[in-house]
Amino acid sequence: MKNQSLTNNIDWVCIIIYILLVIMGWLNIYSSSLSSMDGTSEKQFIFIVLTVPLIFILLYVDGKFYEKYASIIYGVSLLSLLGLFAFGKTIAGQRCWYAFGSFTLQPSEFAKAATALALAKYLSDTQINLKDVNRQIQALAILFFPVMLILPQPDPGSALIYSIFIIVLYREGLPAWYVLTGFVGIVLFMLTLILEPQYVILIALIVIVLVHFKSRLGDRNIFLSGIIFALISGFVLSVSYVFTNVFKQHHRDRFNILLGKSVDMKGIGYNTNQSEIAIGSGGWFGKGFLEGTQTKGGFVPEQHTDYIFTTVGEEWGFLGSLFVIALFAGLLLRIIYLAERQKTKFSRVYGYCVAGVLFIHFFVNIAMVVGVFPTIGVPLPFFSYGGSGLWGFTILLFIFIKMDANKVNEW
Amino acid sequence: MRKVLLPSLIIIAACLLLLRIFYLQIIDDSLKLKSDNNAIKIKYDYPERGYIYDRNGKLLVANQPSYDIMVIPRDIKNIDTLEFCQLLNITKEDFLEKIAKAKVYSPRLPSVFLPQLNKMEFAAFQEKIRKFEGFYFQKRSLRDYQVNFGANIFGFITQVNEKLIAKNPYYNSGDLIGKQGVEESYEEVLRGIKGVKYFQKDKFNREIGSFKEGKYDTIAVQGEDINLTIDAELQKYGEELMINKRGGIVAIEPKTGEILALVTAPSYDPAILVGRQRSKNYTLLYRDSIAKPLFDRSLLAEYAPGSPFKILTGLVGLQEGVINEQTTFMCHHGFSYAPGRFMKCHGFGPHQLHNGIALSCNAYFGNVYLRIIGKYASTPYAVDVWSNHVKSFGLGQFMGYDLPTGKKGKVPTSKTYKKMYPGWGYSGKTIVSNSIGQGEVVMTPIQLANMMATVANEGYYYTPHIIRKIKGEKIDPKFTKKHYTTIDKKYFAPMISGLFDVYNMGTASGLRVEGIDICGKTGTAENFAKIGGKRVQLEDHSIFVAFAPKDNPKIAIAVMIENGGYGATIAGPIASLMIEKYLRHKITRTDLEKRTLERSLQSRYAILGGLSDVVLKEMRIKDSIAKSKIIVPKVKIDTTKRN
C-alpha cells in the first residue's frame, strides 16, 4: 500500500515534538491575540490545518527528488527573492512579502530550506575537501547569494540565520579557524561596544604578547603575531567607526539596551522592558492560560510573532518555559542524532542544516525576548504567528524526516 | 570533535536561556510589581464619612458633595470655549493654561481640571456637561459643618502624607484622613472602609474589564455616626464668652466623666478648612505663632493652677492628719515661714479650713503644707507622699481621654527637687509655694476641671471623654471605670462646704446665681514672658474652678483666662454664666453676661504681638481682634511658667 509506506520508518519522536510545539504555539497565539479580536488565531489555525496536506505531499515525494532537484530548487528560491525587488509588498518598511489579495508569502522563509538543500547537494556531489580554499569559497558562495538578497529588504534577522551554516561546514571539514575567527570577532565586537576601543586593543596586545612568549620556541613567529595584532586592531577600530558613524541611532540603541547603557524604557527600550516584565511576572507556575495580565493588556509589542515566548513565560511560568525549551533542545539533538546515522552525505549535511537553522532561530529569538540578545526580527519556529514561517519550517523539517525514513532503501 | 560542536552549543544555549528565565521569573521580584503596575488598575469606592452629633442628638458635622471637573485632553472635541469658561467662571487664559498643564501630565489620562466646586458652582455646569466632550466630573464628599464653633473638637480632614502612607497600608496617595480632634481619634469609626475594585487595563491605560471577574474586589463599608458628649449650646456659649480673650474652658459631667464643653480661644470657624480655600487658610492659622489658633489651650496649655490648688493642699492635710477642721492658723496679711521669708496674703485674722478656702488665705495653706512636709523625718519622702496624693487626682499624667493631643502637666517629686537643689538639703519651707499652686505644679485646664469633678464626686473620677455613642459599637470600657483618689470620702464634705462659701461670703460672693448652689474657687496666677530679651511680668492669669449644684453635681468646670487678672473678675463670671446656661438654659444676669461678652483683653495681648490685619480679614476668625497697628515682635512666649 502506498499510504502505509508514507508513514513507514518515519521518526515519531520528531513528529510528536513537532505536533506539541505547533499546538502549544497556537494556544499562545490564541491567548495573545484574544484582546485584539482581529482573527489572528483563526488565520493561524487555517495555516496549521493546511500543513497537513503539505506534510502528506512532502512525505509522498520520493526522497531522491530533493537531491536530484536541489540546484533547481535553490535557483527558484533565489529568483523568488530577487523578484521581491520588483513585485514585493512593503510592510512596516520591509519589502519581504508577495501579496495575493489579503494573503502574503515571505520567500525568505522558504529560502532557508532551499539553501540547505543546495549546500548538502554541493558537499555530497564530489569528493569535496573543504581544506581547499577554492572549495571553501564555492561553499560560502552558496550562502552568500541568499544573504545578499535578503539583507537589503532589509531583513537582518533572516540574514543572520545563514551564519549557522558555518557550523555545518565546520562539521564537514571547514578549518577550525573560521569558527574561531567568528567567535573572536563576536567577542571583540561586544568588548568594543562595552569598553573604549583603545582598551580593547591594549588587552589584545597583552594577550598576544603572552601567547607569543608562552608558545614553544620553534612556533615563535613575530611576524604572524604582528599580523594578528594588526588585524585585531583594525577590526576593533572599524567596529568602533562603523558603530558610531555608519549605524543609525536605532541600531546603536538596540545594542546599548543590551549592554545596559540605555534606560529609555518608553522609547527604544520599551519592547525588551515589557517582555522582561511579562516573563518575569510568571513566577514558577505562571498565571494560567488566558490569565496573563500583560498578555491581555497588550503591553508586549509583536507578542504573537517575535515575542510569542513572553506569553509562555507569563501564563505557563518557569515550568512551561522549561518544557518548551526542553522540547526544542530534544528536537534539535534528535535531528543531529538522526543526521549522524544517515548513510548518504547529502542527507547528513541536510539534517545538520535543519538542526542548525532551527537552533539559531530558537536561540536568537528567546535570547532576544529575555533580553540577552539585541532586538532583531527572528521568529520562534512552529510558535510564532505566520503562515510562511510555519510552512517554511515544516518543509525544512519534513524533507529531512522523509530522507531519514528513506535511508533503509538506499544503497 | 567536529561532531560535538553543535550539540554542545545547543545544550549550552538551552541552559543559558533557562538560567536567564529563572532569574527573571524566580529571583527578580521587581518585575511582578511592575507587571501589576502595568496591567492592573485599582479603583476605590470611598464611603461617606460618619456624621457627628452632640449629646442631645443635634447634628454638628455632616457631609456635602463637592465636584471635581476632570479632563482627558485627547478627548476634547470642538467645544464652545467661551460658554465653557462662562459656566465655570474662569478666564480663557485660565482655561488654556489648565489644559496645557493636563496635557503635560498625560494627554490620555484624566487630570483634575477644576477641583472642589460646591453644589451651587457646579449646578449650571452640570446641565451642559454633555456638550463638552473630554470633560466629566467626579463627586467627592467634604465636611459640611452645621455650626461655626467647635473647631478644636472636630479637627479637620486633610490628605494623607507620604509618611503615613508608608506606615499604614490602608491609605493611598490622595486619600483623606481626619487630623486633630475627634476626626483623628475616631478616624477609623468615621471613615468606614473603602471598597476596592480591580480592573485589567491595556497598554493605553484603558480598562478592558474586571480583573479575575472581581475575585479580589471588596465592597465599601459606611462610616459610623457618632454622638459626642459635648453640649452644643454650652460649647457655643463658651466660645462666645471667650471672644477677645485667650485661654480655655473645660466642663465635665462629674457623674460620667463626659466632657460637656471644650473651649479654646482664639479659635476659628471649622468651615474655613474645607474645600478650595483649605490649604491657604490652614497655612495662615499655622503661621500665627502668637495667638496660636490651632493650639488647643483646653488640652495643651500648662498653667500654674494658683489658688484652686489649695483644695488639694487642704485635702491632703486632712488625709495625712496634720490638720482637722478646727485647726487654726493666724494670718497677718501673710505669714513669715522662715527668717526673712514672708508669704503675702490679702486677708487678716485667725483662719480655719472653712474660712481659709472661702477667703483663699495663703497663710493658712502655707502652714498646712509645712505640716504635711514636716510630718515625716525625711523631706524627700514627705514630698513623694504629697506628690502621690496629688497625682491620684489625675495630675502629672496623660489622663487617657479620647482626644489626640494632650499634655501631662507637672507634679514635682523628690527627684525633681534633687535635681533642682543638688548638694544641699531642702525643706518644706523651700518649696512652700506649692501650697498655693505657684510652685512646680502645672496643670492643663482639663486637669483642673477633672480635679473639680473629683471633688464633686467626693473622691473619684471617670476618665474624661468626648465620645458618647458610636452606632453599633460600645464605648471603651475604660471610660466607665471609677478612679479613686487617695483621699477618704469623709474629708470632702468640709472642703465642699468651704467651696460653697466662696460664693456665699468669699472671693466670688458677687457671682451668685439665684437658686443654684455653686461650689467654686478663684485663682490668680502670676506669669512672665520674655519680650525683646527682657523678662516682663504680665497681668496675672485669671482662673476659676467650680461645680454645681452642690448636692447632686451636674457640671464641673475650669476656666482659664490668660492675663485676665484677678480670678473673680473674668474667669469667675464666665464660669458662673456657663453653669447657669447649662443648668437653666437661660441667663438671668443679663448685665453680667453683656459685660463679659464685651470684655476684651486684646490691649493686654498686644504687647505679645498678634494677628495682622490681613490675616484677620482673610480668615474671618471669630475673635475680631482690635485692629491696632502694632508691629508684631516675632517672639515666642511661654505663659505657663510661673516664677
UniProtKB/TrEMBL annotation, chain A:
GO biological process: cell division; regulation of cell shape
Matching PANTHER family: CELL CYCLE PROTEIN, PEPTIDOGLYCAN GLYCOSYLTRANSFERASE MRDB
A cellular component annotation (GO) from this entry: plasma membrane
Name of the protein in question: Rod shape determining protein RodA
Signal peptide as annotated in the record: none
Keyword Ribosomal protein set for record: no
NCBIfam families for the chain: RodA_shape
UniProtKB/TrEMBL annotation, chain B:
GO molecular function: penicillin binding; peptidoglycan L,D-transpeptidase activity; serine-type D-Ala-D-Ala carboxypeptidase activity
Keyword field: Carboxypeptidase, Cell inner membrane, Cell membrane, Cell shape, Cell wall biogenesis/degradation, Hydrolase, Membrane, Peptidoglycan synthesis, Protease, Transmembrane, Transmembrane helix
Subcellular location: Cell membrane; Membrane
Domain Penicillin-binding protein transpeptidase stretches: 247-576
Principal location class: membrane
All copies of domain Penicillin-binding protein dimerisation, residue ranges: 46-209
One GO BP annotation of this record: regulation of cell shape
Record's keyword annotation contains Metal-binding: no
Tree of life domain: Bacteria
UniProt cross-references to InterPro entries, sorted A to Z: Beta-lactam/transpept (IPR050515), Beta-lactam/transpept-like (IPR012338), PBP_dimer (IPR005311), PBP_dimer_sf (IPR036138), PCN-bd_Tpept (IPR001460), Penicillin-binding_protein_2 (IPR017790)
Identification of the protein by name: Penicillin-binding protein 2
Membrane-topology descriptor: Single-pass membrane protein
Organism (species): Flavobacterium fluvii
GO CC term (a single one): plasma membrane
Pfam families in the record: PBP_dimer, Transpeptidase
